[in-house]
Amino acid sequence: MPSERSYEDKRPGQQLYGVIEFCASPKVLYAKIESGHYDWLGVRQDKRGRVTYVVGRPRLARLEGLGGGIAKHGPPSMTGQHHVEVRIPHRLRPPPSESWWLTSEEARADFERKKVTLMQGDGSGLYRLRLYSDGRLVDEHFVVRTLPNVL
Predict the structure, then answer these.
(1) For the chain, how are helix, strand and coil distributed in percent, rounded to 5?
(2) Residue 99 host element (H or E)
(3) pLDDT digits (tens, 9 = 90+) for 52-80
């Protein structure tokens, strides 16, 4: 019978994760982290440039209290049919960060801008961007910002 795992008594040299898994898709990585059962441990790139993401479970890290925000670009009464949604993977599924636009072209430009902006910055990051035009999902992109492999 398997024993209960606990990180409360972790010590140097102790195995921290009972299961290590690998995935090649940012979409799968996002889903695993969002499930709340996995920690993202790292990234491996082979000689051909193929990327493999490494995850472990059960989770060690407990990040709580994450949230989003809404930005509307246009008249105060605008309800909007065109918007960009940015989500982070979190088991509590906090509200997304949203930006609403008067035209689909403005929303598309914001979507492309966010893809670049989210790749910049310190530390690692994992984001799901969605573009809605006329209230329908028209594009989805996953941004995976990794730490430099400099050890």
Answers:
(1) 15, 35, 50
(2) strand 97-101
(3) 999 998 887 665 545 555 566 655 545 66
Output the six-digit token pair for 77: 């009464």
130 close to 85: Cβ distance less than 8 angstroms? yes
CA atoms of 78 and 31, how far apart (whole Å): 33
Q: Which residue has the tokens 């060690």?
A: 60
Question: Cα–Cα distance between 39 and 48 in angstroms, integer?
Answer: 26
Is 83 in contact with 49 (CB distance < 8 Å)? no
Q: Which domain holds residue 139?
A: 70-145
Domain end, chosen from 5, 29, 57, is at: 57
Alpha carbon distance 94, 70 (integer Å): 13
**Do residue 26 and residue 75 come from a single domain?**
no
